[in-house]
From TrEMBL:
<protein>
    <recommendedName>
        <fullName>Flagellar hook-associated protein 2</fullName>
    </recommendedName>
</protein>
<comment type="function">
    <text>Required for morphogenesis and for the elongation of the flagellar filament by facilitating polymerization of the flagellin monomers at the tip of growing filament. Forms a capping structure, which prevents flagellin subunits (transported through the central channel of the flagellum) from leaking out without polymerization at the distal end.</text>
</comment>
<dbReference type="InterPro" id="IPR040026">
    <property type="entry name" value="FliD"/>
</dbReference>
<comment type="similarity">
    <text>Belongs to the FliD family.</text>
</comment>
<dbReference type="GO" id="GO:0009421">
    <property type="term" value="C:bacterial-type flagellum filament cap"/>
</dbReference>
<dbReference type="GO" id="GO:0009424">
    <property type="term" value="C:bacterial-type flagellum hook"/>
</dbReference>
<comment type="subunit">
    <text>Homopentamer.</text>
</comment>
<keyword id="KW-0964">Secreted</keyword>
<dbReference type="Pfam" id="PF02465">
    <property type="entry name" value="FliD_N"/>
</dbReference>
<keyword id="KW-0282">Flagellum</keyword>
<feature type="domain" description="Flagellar hook-associated protein 2 N-terminal">
    <location>
        <begin position="17"/>
        <end position="113"/>
    </location>
</feature>
<dbReference type="GO" id="GO:0007155">
    <property type="term" value="P:cell adhesion"/>
</dbReference>
<keyword id="KW-0966">Cell projection</keyword>
<dbReference type="GO" id="GO:0005576">
    <property type="term" value="C:extracellular region"/>
</dbReference>
<keyword id="KW-0175">Coiled coil</keyword>
<dbReference type="GO" id="GO:0071973">
    <property type="term" value="P:bacterial-type flagellum-dependent cell motility"/>
</dbReference>
<keyword id="KW-0975">Bacterial flagellum</keyword>
Length: 573
């Protein structure tokens, strides 16, 4: 009987008795659906948490990118150099430049060699050669073809021209010749040009591109079969035509009273971090100063970038004091750990720094503090005491720069040994004891064995230790025992960058156990979501089966009620 009332998904419930069993079944299914709704809401809560993890990860990476713009003293510490006479010399200052004034007295600037052909070939003061009237029709070979040869920088350039070649053809042939190289072979050595002396009167001008009076910087025209005016004797007499010729000379100048000579006008080896550009004869004073405002902007950028992450962490983990309700990730151990790790770095002494030996060793000393005032709108965020920062920059700007941007900078106050080098990424920043025993010819760095090289007097930490790659030089290896401390300093920007690199390290494979906490948490939460999806699929199958069962049962009940209703109707009639 029931088979006649059920056909596939089509239900005939209620046709026999008049009872609306479809609505009843629909109501029962809605009750059963609540379980799926609960699971879907639960799933969404984990999805939302993953989205917050991803947003936090993005903000951490943005913080890392921002910090990388100021993570070396050269990027962080901005210094300016000014000149009292820009026509004599200008200057630029790098982070290593010492603040102060420098006197520069220029006698002559460095020059290159310039040769221009003229028409007086025998120094008699008379014109011996015909005018070259134009650059693009006059045949400089005299109608027979010819060659033009010169030497420069130890190279010989031999140019061959065909019949009908013009001055422009000669210029182009010289400039494109493969043997025309600079002294350093880094590019063209001599640039040729057609120089207009007057209307209908042109000369060939050869310009050496290397400055200074080095013999290799001279241009020597050694052979020419071209027309008069382009012969070897038409080149080289500066006294005859000084306005169109120039000898190569070294720059001659005094720096703080010391006489110096250089083959260039760009001088970067007279004082650390300072580059001079000599322009003309005379005296000027170069003044180097720290650009305090630019440095303050860098500090503000540091504070703002960190606060953006702190604000995000506070937003997803805070507890509403009014309702006592938590946020989406309140109490999450991963978020709490990330927040605490970043706070610890900001609050702690710099790695490799010393409270006694370093002018500044903590951010609080330069005005960067965490606002702990109850009820403050910036509570929990970094705030900048600009007056304190100004004071620190006025006292020792280099120390401020080190605290924020030192990048595995090695230092020691000991006279008995010197820091030589380390391997960033292999050598760990920190403070390490150094010991050298002359009797046994052995040494240690940070308590780890180190290898001594008698030829270089260098002690190198062996591999497999935090000090791996750290090298110091024993200044007096004959001393019985040499001890001291070497510090590898890591500024706060780089300490934060290293920490963020760990925190955001993605999980590259299921067996990657070095992934950061955010990647691990996201993977764990995805596993939970997969489990919830399995439960939802199970519930959907269960409800589908239950719906069929209800339809079958109520169809049978409907048929039975219809049967008895018919009997009752017959008895009443």
């Amino acid at each position: 009987m029931s088979d006649s009332l059920l056909s596939g998904n089509i239900s005939f419930a209620g046709l026999g008795s008049g009872t609306d069993f479809s609505t009843l079944i629909e109501g029962l299914m809605k009750v059963e659906q609540r379980r799926i709704t609960q699971l879907e809401n639960w799933r969404k809560s984990w999805d939302d948490k993953i989205l917050e993890f991803q947003d936090l990860n993005t903000k951490l990476l943005s913080l890392k990118t921002s910090l990388e713009t100021i993570n070396t003293p050269g990027k962080f510490l901005v210094k300016n150099a000014s000149s009292s006479s820009e026509s004599v010399a200008s200057a630029t200052a790098g982070p290593d430049a010492q603040a102060g004034s420098y006197t520069v007295e220029v006698t002559q600037t460095a020059t290159n060699h310039i040769l221009t052909s003229d028409r007086d070939s025998d120094d008699n003061g008379t014109v011996d050669a015909a005018i070259i009237p134009d650059t693009d029709t006059f045949d400089v070979t005299g109608g027979v073809g010819g060659t033009f040869t010169f030497t420069y920088g130890g190279n010989t350039v031999n140019v061959s021209l065909g019949i009908g070649a013009t001055l422009n053809d000669l210029v182009n042939a010289i400039n494109s010749h493969p043997d025309n190289k600079s002294v350093t072979s880094s590019g063209i050595g001599v640039r040729a040009s057609a120089l207009k002396i007057a209307e209908g009167d042109y000369s060939l001008q050869l310009t050496g591109l290397d400055l200074g009076g080095d013999p290799d910087h001279f241009i020597n025209v050694t052979g020419s079969t071209l027309v008069d005016g382009l012969k070897t004797t038409n080149f080289g007499d500066i006294a005859r035509w000084p306005e169109y010729n120039q000898l190569p000379k070294n720059a001659l100048f005094k720096f703080n009273g010391v006489s110096l000579s250089r083959q260039t006008n760009s001088i970067d080896d007279v004082a650390p971090g300072l580059t001079l550009l000599l322009k003309g004869s005379g005296t000027t004073t170069i003044t180097v100063k720290t650009d305090t405002e630019a440095v303050k902007e860098n500090v503000l950028a540091f504070v703002d970038a960190i606060n953006e992450v702190r604000t995000k962490i506070n937003e997803i983990s805070k507890v509403d004091t009014t309702t006592n309700e938590g946020s989406i990730l309140t109490g999450n151990y991963g978020v709490d750990m990330i927040g605490q790790n970043l706070k610890n770095i900001v609050a702690s002494k710099g790695i490799g720094f010393d409270y006694d030996d370093d002018f500044y060793s903590a951010l609080s000393q330069v005005g960067i503090l965490t606002d702990a005032e109850e009820g403050s709108v910036t509570r929990g965020l970094l705030v900048l005491d600009e007056a304190k920062l100004d004071e620190a920059l006025a006292k020792d700007p280099d120390s401020v720069a080190k605290l924020l941007s030192a990048n595995y900078a090695g230092e020691t106050d000991e006279a008995t040994f010197s820091f030589m080098s380390c391997l960033p990424g292999t050598t760990e920043a920190g403070t390490y004891d150094v010991r050298w025993d002359q009797a046994t010819q052995t040494g240690t760095i940070g308590g780890y064995a180190a290898t001594y090289n008698a030829a270089t007097k260098e002690l190198t930490a062996n591999g497999g230790a935090p000090v791996s790659g750290l090298v110091v030089r024993i200044n007096n290896p004959a001393a019985d025992i040499t001890t001291g401390v070497v510090r590898i300093k890591l500024g706060k920007t780089n300490e934060l960058i290293d920490e963020i690199r760990v925190l955001t390290d993605p999980k590259s494979s299921p067996t990657d156990f070095e992934a950061g906490p955010l990647a691990v948490l996201e993977e764990n939460y995805n596993d939970i979501i997969k489990s919830i999806d399995t439960k939802i699929e199970y519930e959907e199958r269960r409800i589908t089966r239950l719906q069929r069962q209800y339809k079958d049962r109520f169809a049978r009940l409907d048929a039975m009620l219809g049967y008895y209703n018919n009997i009752a109707s017959g008895m009443q009639s």
